[in-house]
Amino acid sequence: MAALKGLAGQILRVDLTSGSITKEPTPEDVFAGYIGARGVGAYLLLKELKPHTDPLGPDNKLIFLTGPVEGTLAPGANKITVTFRSPLTGTYFFSLCGGHLAPEVKFAGYDGIIIEGRGDHPVYLWIDDDRVTLKDASHLWGKLTHATEDAIRAELKDEAIRVACIGPAGEKLSRFACIQSDYHREFGRGGAGAVMGSKNLKAIAVRGSGSIEVADPAALEALAEKTYSILAGNLKARARRHYGTPEMVDGTNGLGYWGTRNFSSGYFEEANKINAASMKENIFVGHISCYACPIACGKVSYIKEGPYAGTMIEGPEFESAGLLGANCGVADLAALVKAVEICDTYGLDTMSAGAVASLAMECYEKGIITSRDTGGLDLRFGNGAALVALMEKIVRREGIGDLLAEGSKRAAEKLGVPELAMQVKGQEFATYDPRGCKGMGLGYAISPKGAHHMIAPTMGAETAGDGSKRFEYKGKAALVRETQFLLAVVDSLSLCSSMRFALGLKEQIELYRAVSGLALDEAGAMLIGEKITNLERLFNQREGFDRKDDYLPPRMLKEKMPTGPSQGHLVELDPMLDEYYDLMGWDRQGRPTAEKLAALGLAHLWREVS
Amino acid sequence: MNVLVTYPERCVGCRICEQWCSWKHEGRVNPTKARVRVSRVHSKYLNVPVTCMQCAKSPCIAACREGALSKDPATGAVIVDEEKCIGCRRCVRACPYGAVAIDKDKRVVLICDLCGGEPQCVAHCREGAIEYVPLAVADRGQRAAYVETVAAAMEGGSK
Ligand code: SF4
Fold this sequence. Notes:
Chain A: This is Putative oxidoreductase YdhV. The structure holds two protein chains of two kinds. In chain A, about 40% of the residues lie in helices and about 15% in strands.
């Protein structure tokens, strides 16, 4: 049992090449220094991965980590991260998954699971408290994700087992394949599913029956009660409770920064067909929650009629509605739900999938690809049936789907139109068009994992009040920097970011103190956020990334927003970048300076690993 | 006397009820030691909270050969005498709901004790999926649901 409270005390290490399974004591000093999950993952990946590791080779690792609050009374404590080198971006990467997997891992007695090597045949990992085995998965290879979960639960004869698995997309090494859990929760972005596929690991199944000790139960209990009551009265939280994440459609589109038709615009005229109100009216039939969540943002959707009748999913999430919907010009809810179902059951990131589809659609409309390339699909923007058919091709890597499964950047380069891929470092944009929200543009640019929206989600602060702040450049570098540190803390604690509706940094740190018993304060937490941010930067620097990779596609910098409330706007990135690097104590190439590393106490580590 | 009533159609599967149940009884969160358990039927996107229903003639008590189970006359909760319980799990098999479980460490059974009259699952369920109501009106929710179904069918028929 760990001395540092809130931890299970062990890390599981599984080498698929040799089949060896070992348990190591949780490195408590690393957890004390980096809180958990994301922070510890960044540290371990930098330490354990050799420079230039092939993302799809046996030397890449999948480092699954929970945070200190999982398995305790903490509300919204349900995230587990996986850290790896991404086959999509080549960068450091971590993906977060909700659902019920994280607490189960802790209850089984582990703070994390490190997967390395490569099996010579498909296997799955079965963690039954302290009994851990590798089981043959040949019969599961090729199965869809839901079927895989069901089959494993049936095989192990327990309905309550939690499973994380890949689908055919991961097996076929699609570069944006995800790892799926609880049917519709996923380690979504960056291709963790492809890494898992490359290792011949079909699934991880977990059953835990233990518990986690906390330092100050009375304080934790009071904080939990306080969180529930704040959330009950919070308007944003209530909107999310009623509508799920699509509650954000109207706000984002209404201000004209909702990526539309491959980000040729930020305003989708038909948004009201795929917004929260329309979903609630037409497709929502129930609610589903991740573990310990007082919001329950998961909405169950069901298609009653038409060609996709009978389709049932949890979702669509806001980002899926954006990238498979608005960004493909698709306002057909049923087609949207079907597209999400295909992605989720085959194990593909809906966001990147929507982005490559929108790229293909623009290429089709411009004559860069023709119906001969698409196998007869009429890939015009707005064609929902064609979108669904295209998803089938991508997940199977059939025809043009094979090219698109490589991600937007690679596909666009092959097609000779690299400028049409809306991506940074190979990671496709999230659904926000940075021309209508400049801080998000800077956030996309400097994100260690490419154009990811949750590294520095500044949109809330930028659209507060009359919403005009989002066009300003002043203060954006500072806002991005601060938001980045805050998120690094919340991701390391492994709280769902929706808990930030109720829990500011102060409360998050109170929670951490109650659970861990460590006397961390807010300034100390921000410093940890900064250290994590620098570690992530250093990993990428070792792989050759610098300022040249911190750029948005030319469309954002040169093509004025053509329509909607953000009309006429561009992103002027360079001045924001300069300011940001200066504030970070990085040189103008975006490299942490020796002084900065020394000040953060990272100089020694960097010498050791570089 | 009050009893627990569950509304599976309202349950979202957050398992906050399990958390508080084990927390109050064990001082730790541990779903396997909660007296209320939430099962997810993945394929149907359903969640079902399972807890003791305070049966009038408790099959668990009848099944126990050790006299380890009795009913608290004040609350109607089944009380486990941990000294007498031998962990044979006859009561587990007898329960029509599957609401009795075994504590793997103490090797005695876990049955809802209604937290002495203030059930924590009810206090913390944000969805109203578990209620604690007088026995006399415990069936009203069921009736309301049935009436709604009939009304909907009649409405549909008259169109
Ligand atoms: S707290 Fe309520 S909604 Fe949550 S799992 Fe329990 S019964 Fe269901």
